[in-house]
Each structure stands twice: as structure tokens, then as C-alpha cells.
Specification:
Layout lengths: L2 H100 L34
């Protein structure tokens, strides 16, 4: 071997190693890219789709319940107003208070507090009671 061929041999080594490492790197990157693509397609995307569907189902159900409840509340307004205004305030309460006043009793029935109707439902932290807040 001549000195020039020895120098040429050692001069070519970095390029050979660079080519070898680049080839290995390309193969490893290709494998991990393929695995990553498979994982995205067969694991990540289906799980995301299921979670999105569950979230959409809960949102749709919540919206449906709210719309249904709003319809029930709207349908109940007139009958409740009739019972409170006609039956209770201008009927039972008026007669009771008139009779009680005529016989000298200081017992009268309470007024219905309407500004609290929008808060109807169960109260919390009020101790024991009937639990409803629509008649004062």
C-alpha cells in the first residue's frame, strides 16, 4: 500500500461513516414514522372520536333537558297563576280573612310573594321545611 492510497483510505472513512449513519437514521425515522402514523390512525384518532361523540351526546342531552324543562315551566305558568290569583288570593284567602275579621280574629292568610317564583325549587341550608319556595 502506498502512502497516497493509505491517505485516501482514511480520508474516505468519514464519508463512509456519514453515509452509514444517515442510512441507519433514515431507516429508524421511517420505522418510527410508520409506527407513529399507525398509532395516530388506529389508537389516537378513534379515542378522540369516541370522546368527542360522548361530549356531543352530553351537550345534546343537556340542551334537550333544558328545552323540555322550559316547556314544562311555560305550560305550568297559567295554571299556577290561576290557582294563586283566583283560587287562593281572591278565593280562599279573601273569604278566610273576611270571616276572621268579621268574628274579631286577628288571623289572616299570608300573601304569595311573586318575585320569588323564578327561584322556585328546593332551598338549601334552611333547615327542615316542605322544601318548596313558590308560595312565600
Amino acid at each position: 500500500m502506498t502512502p497516497t492510497s493509505i491517505i485516501d483510505f482514511f480520508t474516505g472513512i468519514p464519508g463512509d461513516f456519514n453515509d452509514l449513519f444517515q442510512s441507519a437514521k433514515d431507516k429508524i425515522t421511517g420505522i418510527f414514522g410508520t409506527v407513529g402514523d399507525w398509532f395516530d390512525q388506529h389508537v389516537k384518532t378513534p379515542i378522540k372520536n369516541v370522546l368527542d361523540a360522548i361530549g356531543n351526546t352530553f351537550q345534546s342531552t343537556k340542551d334537550w333537558i333544558k328545552e323540555s324543562w322550559d316547556k314544562v315551566k311555560e305550560a305550568a305558568k297559567s295554571p299556577v297563576k290561576f290557582i294563586v290569583d283566583t283560587v287562593y288570593t281572591n278565593g280562599i284567602k279573601k273569604v278566610w280573612n273576611s270571616v276572621a275579621g268579621a268574628v274579631g280574629l286577628k288571623l289572616s292568610l299570608p300573601d304569595v310573594v311573586r318575585q320569588r317564583w323564578h327561584q322556585s325549587g328546593l332551598r338549601s341550608g334552611q333547615g327542615y321545611h316542605s322544601g318548596y319556595d313558590f308560595a312565600g
